[in-house]
Write a structure and sequence with these properties.
six-stranded antiparallel sheet; Thiol Ester Dehydrase, Chain A; about 180 residues; binds coenzyme A; 8 strands; alpha+beta; two-stranded parallel ribbon; about 30% helix
Amino acid sequence: MLYQILVLMKNKKYKFPSESETIKTEVVCPTDTNPMGMLKGGQLILWMDMAAAGCAQIHSDMTCVTAAISRANFIAFAETGDIITIKAKLTRVFNTSMEVFANAFARKVKGSKNQLICEVYFVFVSLDDKGNPINAPELKPVTESEKKQFAGARHRRNKYSASKNMEPGVYKYEKKAN
Ligand SMILES: CC(C)(COP(=O)(O)OP(=O)(O)OC[C@H]1O[C@@H](n2cnc3c(N)ncnc32)[C@H](O)[C@@H]1OP(=O)(O)O)[C@@H](O)C(=O)NCCC(=O)NCCS
């Protein structure tokens, strides 16, 4: 009986955002900064991409690649020695693609406050063993903020779709309406 429940849980068609929410912590070292001692934007995006990839892969149980990174908003800067906390959470699954929202916070070692420094939306695509896109389990939003992000993801995807004919070499979408 317990085995059957475990199999059912593993094969279920949907998952909740909280199941794959990922938190990553880093400490800003001198090699991560520009000559003024500020954390480099590209380094922060790399850390956020890693956290978001972990989140997508935990959800899909498959290897995922970054298909797109939306406009990153750098809200404040972090400095050498700051503790960076990155939170990544799925907002919506379409077919083979998933949107992940990641935000990053900085905290001084002797400070008590976490300050929001960056927000980014990522799109990941789940791949099978041959490297072909494969459908990911559906996502069921539960909380109000999860439902808001879920609805917003549709608008963001529509924006990408609308731009695909304007930008050279950019994507082909909307295989199935979700
Ligand atoms: C991302 C990638 C797998 C898509 O492959 P593809 O052959 O274009 O696949 P499809 O056209 O079937 O698209 C697959 C899904 O990705 C989505 N997609 C593809 N490019 C996208 C983009 N630039 N932005 C958002 N979504 C995108 C499609 O809408 C589709 O979504 P859906 O299945 O949920 O409807 C392929 O372009 C790739 O391998 N890119 C390189 C990825 C990479 O190197 N990343 C950095 C290292 S991790």
